[in-house]
Amino acid sequence: MASLNKIMLIGNLGQDPELRYTPEGNPVANFSIAVTYRRRVNEEMQDETEWFNVSCFNRTAENVNQYLTKGQKVYVEGRFQSREYVGQDGNQRKSFEVVANDVKFLNTKSEAESMGSKSPTNTEETQSDNSQNQKDTGKEEDLPW
């Protein structure tokens, strides 16, 4: 039986994307998104937020860097990936990220312009680059929405 590794998220950018390049010259954009949901806690509804680190490559990375800014709503589709590394304290650590092959900008043009960004577009180019170039980010304290 085949396996499936697919993740679909809708959330808000926690910070502006960071664009870097692999040693081969391929663009890589890293950003985080906050996905907020409501759940019942003791007869009361409470918001919960999960943070996801996202990496995308090539044309998708360039579009994300050009058009997205902190706070914008996006749809991200891709695969979930983990990696192990040794932290600055010498301890073994594991990080998780979404490697996106599709990012859709969900704000309307007027909403995006009022946030100070350029007009939104979609990026649907499938990425085959599996580069490990990523930035680890923590939780953002100042939610932009």
Task: Please supply descriptive tags for the structure shown above.
145 residues, mainly beta, 2 helices, 11% helix, five-stranded mixed β-barrel, OB fold (Dihydrolipoamide Acetyltransferase, E2P)
Can you put this structure into words, describing what you see?
- This protein is mainly β and 145 residues long.
- It has a single domain, classed as OB fold (Dihydrolipoamide Acetyltransferase, E2P) (Beta Barrel), CATH 2.40.50.140.
- The protein has helices at 58-67, 109-114; strands at residues 7-13, 18-21, 27-41, 44-57, 73-86, 92-105, 122-123.
- Strands 1-3-4-6-5 form a five-stranded mixed barrel.
- Mean pLDDT is 83; it is low at 119-140.
How would you summarize what this structure contains?
By secondary structure, the chain is mainly β. The chain has one domain (7-120): Nucleic acid-binding proteins (OB fold (Dihydrolipoamide Acetyltransferase, E2P), Beta Barrel).
